[in-house]
Structure formats: structure tokens, C-alpha cells
Design a protein that fits this description.
The protein is an all-alpha fold and 235 residues long. It is built from 12 helices and 2 strands, in the order H-H-H-H-H-H-H-H-H-H-E-E-H-H. It has one domain. About 7% of the residues have low confidence.
């Protein structure tokens, strides 16, 4: 079966066609619970979407295609045809709403946390020196704006709770604080590695964003340019 990333990268007939492809997996991840009408219109799929399987196997590549190609190419059409909801659908691939962070019985990490963790990896990769020189300037703007929002929605503590703590070997107190139980086994090495990787992505956001912004400005000399997000400025 053709992957979602491949399908949305191909020529599409309309914004309705695009939404028919991207809404079902987002709805399965509870990332569109506040857009009932949109889900009713575009949320039907030929086969049920396994949210856990999607975020583990397809999400990262879908995010890359969305930020580098789909969003820049379809942004104006989505706004014209569907208004704010149409554009917000693409944002939900990177910035999940509160319902998506609810825990599930099938996975220790919520779909929302999986989306956020993947977003840090993909967006910082997009802003790397190698990628920034080859993608549209609008992709750099979008990636930077998304990271500016993401750092407020999903911070270091959230990363920890969604990786090491979610491995079931750490105790989470009633106030939300996290502490290691002396009787617990050592933390899951895979969870520790994922936390460390995510932390590196987060800590590198200001530098990568600033460098990519410089690349974008070089590409757009003589044109009006937006200001660099104040939240990502470093001393």
C-alpha cells in the first residue's frame, strides 16, 4: 500500500482531495477533536487508521513532506477554500491539541506526545544548514514558527514524562513531579536514548533557527522579510 507521504507528494486534484488524505490519520490521533465538521466531511478512510502504527512508522516522513512541500504549495488554496480550519489541519501534524495528549491503554506514550517528539526531530532537521539551502523560504518560516509554538506546548518536563517516565519504571507524584523509586529497575535504555535525542533537538532550536533564517534572508534579498521570532532569540 502506498504510504501517506508518497500520496500527498503527488499532484492532487483539489484541497478536498488533500484533506481526504490527511484528516483520517490526524483524527485517529485525536488531533482534530475540535473540528467535528471537518472530520465528518473528510475523515472517512478505506481502512481504519491505527494511530500507534501511524505515528511510529509514517509520521516523521509525512511531517517532512508537509513542511517542505505540501504546506508551502497548498497554503493559499486551503485558506481560500476552507479558511483557518483547513490550514490548522496541517499545523496539527506538528502541534497537537490537548485531547491528543490523553494516555491510551495500548501505548505508554500518547499520540500527542509522539507527534511533539517527532516534530522536534523533523523541524530541527529541516532547519539544518544542508536542508535550509534547498527548501523554499516559506518552509523555513513555517518550521521556525512551529518550533516557537512547540516549545510552549511541549517542554523538557513533557519530554521526560513521555519517554523515561512513560517506560513504567519511574514514579510520577500527584503534583506531576517525577522521581525514581529505589526499588524500580533502571530506566529503559531506549527511553533514555529517546529523551537524550529529543533534548538535543530542543537545545539546538535557537541556533538552527537563526542559521536557517540567515539562509532565507540571503535568498530573499531585496524583499520584505518577517522578523525573527523573539522567543527564539539568544543573548
Amino acid at each position: 500500500m502506498t504510504s501517506l507521504a508518497t500520496r500527498i507528494a503527488e499532484p492532487l486534484a483539489s484541497t478536498s482531495h488533500l484533506l481526504d488524505l490527511v484528516v483520517p490519520p490526524l483524527a485517529a490521533c485525536h488531533a482534530l477533536d475540535d473540528f467535528a465538521d471537518l472530520v465528518a466531511a473528510h475523515g472517512h478512510s478505506n481502512a481504519p487508521v491505527d494511530a500507534r502504527r501511524f505515528v511510529r512508522r509514517q509520521l516523521g516522513l509525512v511531517q517532512k513532506v508537509v513542511i517542505e512541500r505540501v504546506w508551502p504549495e497548498w497554503e493559499a488554496a486551503l485558506v481560500a477554500d476552507d479558511g483557518q480550519p483547513g490550514q490548522l489541519v496541517l499545523e496539527r501534524f506538528f502541534i497537537p491539541p490537548a485531547p491528543a495528549f490523553a494516555s491510551t491503554s495500548s501505548s505508554p506514550t500518547s499520540p500527542g506526545a509522539e507527534i511533539a517528539l517527532s516534530s522536534y526531530a523533523v523541524l530541527t532537521s529541516v532547519l539544518s544548514a544542508k536542508s535550509a539551502s534547498t527548501i523554499p523560504p516559506r518552509s523555513i518560516e513555517l518550521a521556525t514558527d512551529l518550533l516557537t509554538k512547540l516549545v510552549h506546548v511541549f517542554n523538557v518536563e513533557d519530554m521526560y514524562l513521555s519517554t523515561i517516565a512513560a517506560s513504567g519504571r519511574f514514579a510520577v507524584g500527584p503534583s506531576g513531579s517525577v522521581s525514581e523509586d529505589e526499588d524500580d529497575e533502571r530506566a529503559d535504555p531506549a527511553a533514555v536514548a529517546r529523551f537524550d535525542s529529543s533534548l538535543r533537538h530542543l537545545s539546538g532550536v535557537p541556533t538552527r533557527a537563526a542559521n536557517a533564517w540567515g539562509v532565507m534572508r540571503d535568498k530573499q534579498k531585496g524583499r520584505a522579510r518577517p522578523d525573527f521570532p523573539a522567543d527564539l532569540e539568544t543573548e
